[in-house]
Write a structure and sequence with these properties.
Elements: E1 9-13, H1 18-28, E2 32-37, H2 58-61, E3 67-71, H3 77-89, E4 92-95, H4 101-104, H5 109-115, E5 120-125, H6 139-145, H7 168-189, E6 194-198, H8 199-206, H9 208-216, E7 250-254, E8 265-269, H10 275-281, H11 296-299, H12 303-314, H13 319-326, E9 333-335, H14 339-344, H15 346-350, E10 354-359, E11 363-368, H16 391-397, H17 402-410
Parallel strand pairs: 1-2, 1-4, 2-3, 4-5, 5-6
Antiparallel strand pairs: 7-8, 8-9, 10-11
Helix pairs in contact: 1-7, 6-8, 7-8
The structure holds coenzyme A.
């Protein structure tokens, strides 16, 4: 079985999280990803949040698997010459520097096209063209500027950011799609193109349902929100606690052990089609006869009361017992799983979603494998490279002799 992206060479100028997420995905699909890092320094995340002193951090190792590392100072003359060879050698270049950084190195899009007209040049930036285009951006800034924070949190409380890295990893995913789309286009155009993805746009795309609700507001209250029927709505989509983003009411309820276990909760969706079974399971069959309860519309003003009643029942059972009872009744529900539970879940190990890899300095560590499964192109998840581990090997592939490599090393270019 061949890898889907075998033969595609990626010049990876990415750092931190958004860009590396993108190129790691491409590497899992079989692309040869050459990660370019500053000599002696490398991607700043190698040294951030280190759990073991002087060892590449999990931040770095979990975002840079399956790549090769080449050290190169692209601000030196020798470095620029090698970088030019790399642009000729590769199919795709990916970067997520602060706006203008590659232009300042002398590698504008026009220059890159001169060097290699088939090059696909992909970038993540915080914002698209407009008033903020020159700003540097990190994850939580993107969550705040893309609509996620204003719509996340308890209804009468502060905006909240989410633990899911929708600004960084989310934008990296968007960029990866842009790259493979441009690669496909190149098969008939024979030309490269520019691919850009702004983190604000990526987050807003993931908050699409909240812009939906913004427009629904003009036609009356959002009846599935906890503010309905007694609270008030302003003129913007409000925060909605744990209510469901879809048309079926949902909420997080406590389960047995919640007093001591912060994750003893379950999310339950009271989908209309499965409501009879749910009402019977919790001993509220009378709801099915009562006009105050027996239609989805009638229930809307009582959602808080309904979830209180459901919770009285779930508090007598563990989250897994609730799953066992409700799943056969087709009631959509999901336990709140902690990172510890996920790390230990055997089925996620079996599918390669959680993978243990071995690192020559760190030893064994867990990483999240490829969440996208292709039937004919399996992804083998490997460790991240050491800084400059593949420098000589890659420079030889570019046609440099051992003497050339030594000269570049002594000039501080690699
Ligand atoms: N050789 C020589 N110089 C190099 C180099 C190399 N191999 N790799 C990077 N550099 C230089 C860059 O050219 C830049 O120099 P310049 O400022 O003189 O142009 C410098 O290193 C630092 O790059 P920068 O991107 O400004 O890093 P930063 O740490 O100050 O900012 C971010 C980090 C993430 C805020 C910024 O890169 C950014 O906004 N990126 C776009 C949005 C993004 O992806 N954010 C999410 C990150 S997870």
């Amino acid at each position: 079985m061949s890898k889907a992206l075998e033969g595609v060479k990626i010049l990876d100028m990415t750092h931190v999280q958004s860009g590396p997420t993108c190129t790691q995905l491409l590497a899992w699909f079989g692309a040869d990803v050459i990660k370019v890092e500053r000599p002696g320094v490398g991607d700043a995340t190698r040294g951030q949040l280190q759990d073991i002193p002087e060892v590449d951090s999990l931040y770095f190792t979990m975002l840079n698997g399956n790549k090769r590392s080449l050290t190169l100072n692209t601000k030196t003359d020798d470095g620029k010459a090698i970088f030019t060879k790399l642009i000729q050698y590769c199919d795709v270049m990916v970067e997520n520097f602060a706006p203008g950084a590659l232009d300042r190195m002398g590698f504008t899009w026009e220059r890159i096209q001169e060097i290699n007209p088939r090059m696909i040049y992909a970038s993540v930036k915080g914002f698209g063209p407009g008033p903020y285009e020159d700003c540097k951006v990190y994850e939580n800034v993107a969550q705040c500027t893309g609509g996620a924070a204003s719509t996340t949190g308890e209804i009468d409380s502060v905006p909240l950011v989410t633990g899911a890295q929708i600004g960084d990893s989310g934008t990296g995913l968007h960029l990866a799609l842009g790259i493979v789309t441009a690669l496909f286009h190149r098969t008939h155009s024979d030309k490269g193109q520019r691919v850009t993805c702004a983190m604000q746009d990526g987050v807003l795309n993931l908050c699409r349902v909240k812009l939906r609700d913004q427009q629904r507001l003009a036609h009356g209250p959002l009846t599935e929100y906890p503010q309905f029927p007694n609270g008030t709505f302003g003129d913007a989509t409000p925060r909605a606690g744990n209510s469901s983003g879809g048309g079926q009411p949902g909420w997080i309820v406590k389960c047995k052990g919640w007093e001591t276990d912060p994750d003893a909760y379950i999310y339950i969706i009271t989908q209309a089609a499965a409501f009879d079974g749910l009402a019977k399971a919790i001993g509220h069959e009378y709801w099915l006869e009562d006009p105050e309860w027996n239609t989805p519309k009638a229930r809307l003003p009582h959602l808080e009361k309904m979830f209180d009643e459901i919770e009285k029942w779930t508090m007598t059972k563990t989250k897994f017992e609730v799953m066992e009872i409700l799943n056969p009744l087709n009631v959509p529900c999901g336990p709140i799983l902690s990172m510890k539970e996920l790390a230990e879940e055997p089925s996620l190990r079996d599918t390669g979603t959680i993978v243990e890899v071995d690192h020559p300095v760190r030893g064994k560590y867990l990483t999240v494998g490829n969440p996208i499964k292709l039937s004919d192109s399996p992804a083998d998840v490997d460790r991240s490279p050491l800084l400059g581990e593949h420098t000589d090997e890659i420079l030889k592939e570019l046609g440099m002799s051992a003497a050339d490599i030594e000269t570049s090393k002594s000039a501080g270019a690699v």
